[in-house]
Design a protein that fits this description.
The chain is α+β, with helices and mostly antiparallel strands and 382 residues long. The protein has a 6-stranded mixed β-sheet with strand order 15-14-16-20-19-17, sandwiched between helices. Strands 21-24-23-25-27 form a 5-stranded mixed beta barrel. A 3-stranded antiparallel β-sheet has the order 1-13-2, with no helix packed on it. The longest helix has 20 residues.
Length: 382
């Protein structure tokens, strides 16, 4: 039976640090791993380490076209003093294994056939033109650890190991647009396509569910339908106070609202809760507020659901002063040059032009009045 509609509590802003802690506490364990083709796994978080069980190559192989020979049999060979080999050598191509008793590859034109005899006209050293066992990848080498993202540059190594698949964790995201204006004109849902691209960059799968007329009853119905098949649900729009608070009221009807309102600019009207065991994040309708909530709450959630290992902290040096007000965590988009010098593009805002030009975002803590020029600050790479 549907639960009755419950009006959510008035918007009370929680400090960002407290909000993030409460949000992460709502999340279930990392999603179950699944095996997918290696190329499709690029950008996803590995559930198992990619490790070489045996050396690559497993035996000496040719690095070039030529003739597989024993190097000792070519000693003293020259154009005017060819050395007759014990028998006709085997022609090899790059990647071919060397026959027993050979340890070098003689270039193609350094062998002459005179009747039934094969003659070397140049000497080769042991190992010349050969890749030794384990020279590509030593046995036991961990190429990419569990909790790291698989990279495109890892694919040749996976192919060398004979691994056609990789085990990864892929969170399933659902996007439900609840704004009344979107329900009547889905083309106005500009946040959905943007966030879908950002979700793909985080290694998640994305499902955009049909927009519902922006009433709490419809929002609740959409949440109940989506919760069983998704690991995280994003509610877009309708996150304001009073009559505009459709998302929180719908979430309260379908499950529970844990928090609504965070002390951050932009992103103030973001909130979150759960339907059953599925976490639900309320994203404001205004794009820069939605982006802020994505950076502050959705990205950490996807990292947790994917089992992503913590990356080393990133830092930049401010090119000029950043002044911030006490009481709110403020987001500052930064353009960072090759020297690590960061130019603030806005303060407490993520306008489209600044976001497009930014390489990272600085989050100024609510108790700070900002930073002086030249300050070394922690940043969130984009």
């Amino acid at each position: 039976m549907d639960s009755p509609l419950r009006a959510p509590a008035p918007l009370r802003l929680a400090p960002l640090e407290d909000a993030l802690s409460a949000w992460l506490a709502l999340l279930p364990a990392p999603v179950a791993p699944r095996r997918i083709p290696a190329a499709a796994a690029v950008g996803r978080v590995l559930a198992e380490s990619v490790q070489a069980a045996t050396p690559v190559p497993a035996m000496p192989v040719a690095l070039r076209d030529g003739w597989a020979v024993a190097a000792a049999d070519t000693l003293g060979a020259g154009p005017y003093s060819p050395v007759v080999l014990a028998g006709p050598p085997l022609r090899v191509r790059p990647g071919d294994g060397l026959p027993p008793g050979t340890d070098a590859v003689l270039p193609p034109f350094d062998l002459e056939m005179t009747g039934p005899f094969a003659q070397a006209v140049q000497p080769v050293a042991p190992g010349e033109g050969v890749r030794r066992p384990g020279e590509d990848i030593a046995a036991g080498t961990v190429l990419r650890a569990a909790g790291e993202r698989l990279r495109a540059r890892d694919l040749p190594a996976l192919a060398a190991l004979g691994s056609a698949e990789a085990a990864v964790r892929v969170p399933r995201l659902a996007w439900i647009a609840t704004g009344a204006e979107i329900a009547t004109d889905p083309a106005r849902d500009t946040n959905g396509p943007l966030l879908a691209l950002l979700a793909a960059a985080e290694g998640a799968d994305w499902s955009a569910l049909p927009p519902r007329p922006g009433t709490p009853e419809n929002t609740a119905a959409a949440l109940r339908a989506a919760a069983p098949d998704h690991d995280l649900i994003l509610l877009g729009g309708g996150s304001g106070e009073g009559a505009e608070d459709r998302s929180a009221e719908g979430l309260a009807a379908a499950g529970r609202v844990a928090l609504h309102g965070i002390g951050a600019r932009p992103g103030t009207t973001a909130g979150f809760g759960a339907v059953g065991g599925t976490p639900v994040l309320i994203l404001p309708g205004r794009t820069e507020d939605a982006l802020a909530a994505w950076l502050l709450l959705a990205r950490p959630a996807l990292a947790a659901l994917s089992g992503l290992r913590g990356a080393a902290p990133a830092h930049a040096r401010l090119a000029r002063k950043v002044a911030s007000g006490i009481g709110f965590a403020e987001l500052v988009p930064l353009r960072v040059d090759a020297r690590g010098l960061a130019e603030p593009l806005a303060i407490g805002a993520l306008p489209p032009g600044a976001f497009a030009a930014a390489d990272a975002v600085l989050v100024v803590p609510p108790g700070s009045e900002g930073y002086e020029p030249g300050a070394d600050v922690p940043v969130m790479p984009l």
